[in-house]
Design a protein that fits this description.
The protein has 541 residues and is α+β, with helices and mostly antiparallel strands. It is built from 14 helices and 14 strands. The longest helix has 49 residues, at 16-64.
Length: 541
Amino acid sequence: MKLPSSDRFRLPLFGIRTLLITLLLPGVILLLVIDSWNDYRTLSAITNEAYDSALLEPARVLESSIEFTDAGQLIVATPVYAQVILESKAGLRKYFRIEEISPPLPEGSEVVPPSGRTLAGMPELPRPPAWPSTRGEPMFFNSVYRDDPVRVVAVLRDLYYRGQHRQVLVLVAESIGRRLQAEEAARRQELLRDARMLALVAILVWWGVAWSLRPLTRLRNDIRVRSPEDMTPLDAARVPSEVIPLVEAVNYHIERHRRVLDEQAQFLADASHQLRTPMAIILTQAQYALREPDPQRAQEGLRAIVDQLGRTRRLTEQLLSLAHASQEDSTPRQLLDLNDVARNVVLQYLPLSHEKGQDLGWVAAEPTDAPILNAHASRAAESTEASDTIAEMGEARDGDESASVVPVLPVFGSEAELHEALSNLLHNAIHYAPVGARITVSAALAGDRAEVSVSDNGPGIDVASRHRAFARFDRLGSGRGSVSSGSGLGLSIARAYARRNAGDITLRDGEPNTQGGVGLAAVLWLPLAMPRDISSGAAKD
């Protein structure tokens, strides 16, 4: 099976040390080979130039030793110096020939003439493969004489005497055995030097890579020796700068994991504490009902048990909701009208507020108050899928003919979670507000976000204590209605669900009450869905 490209690159085929050495060493070796080859060619050229210069010297001496006799004949008067330099030595044999070219060839001729009269030297000495085009300039070439590889220099010379024009070719050859030995010795020295350099470079690369990876090895060992309960961050000061982002990412996940564990531990401790008290009360009431001989008083005990079970069931549901809201967000999001969600919550809790004698009101957000939303909806209507989604939302409004087919407050979120958040806010208001209180739920547009406010004229919460209202199981004393029967989880659950949907909950002053103060307003807000989000709402549903 063919893996995706992202998976192919994630396969741990090699370690970092092996990968670095594999990338560095071949390049270094290639550079050394190229450098050695250039050095060898340069040294070979210098060696040949030195030997060629030494070979040219006897040719110049022989060239200058050619003379005319009084009769106009050419002779070679070889001096003692020329005889000395032409003497053969072991591994360095020399040969020469002086040849007269008749008739003389013109300047620039490229035709090799037939062999002429030998004035001196070895008649069989090889002639140049190409004729020298310039007078006096030496020509070097390689050849073989008597099964001996030789290096030959050829010098063409014009001589003039009493109107006579003669032309001679001076050839001097030398065996290349000594030259090859020098080149071989130089090659061996070059190879030895390069081998030492290569070994040194390999050791340095290996040591450098190992030394550079020591912080990673130390980091690995530090993590291995840690206990499972150790959630302290890793020390980013002891690693290279390139690894710091990785350490910071690991520390981020360690912190998240530690926070989750702390929240779970706190949740278990709080839940066990909160459930222990009602269970003890139920057990005591049941024991009392069993011991009571009077049937009427036993019935009262049973009713108290039923009431306590109802409160315990509510507490258990709140705990389960809080546990769900504290988990990682995996609920699918869809395009919603927050105005509709709030309206459905008000309809659900209307009987409960009437039972308590409270005045529960609903103020819907109007499209005419939201020109930006109308623009959003008109752009979304350009998408067929978005139009179908919005139309379905309009048809689901329980036959409300005045409702628009476009969302008044379009947001992206989980309908169940937002419904639960608003339910907790409204349940808190009904629960804590006194009999006859006035509660108003209103939806509105506030800039680039949608807001739903649950406001009452109950006792409210002091401004300095509002930050504690979102703490778990904190009922803020007795200053807010019959708080002794509450669980202290409603606002915590509501805020957790709001933040899971990219929003939040804030507390403000509510409506004036009969005690001369103000009640409490809990405001849930969410960012508005942008036009591009609305146009793709059906796909995200």
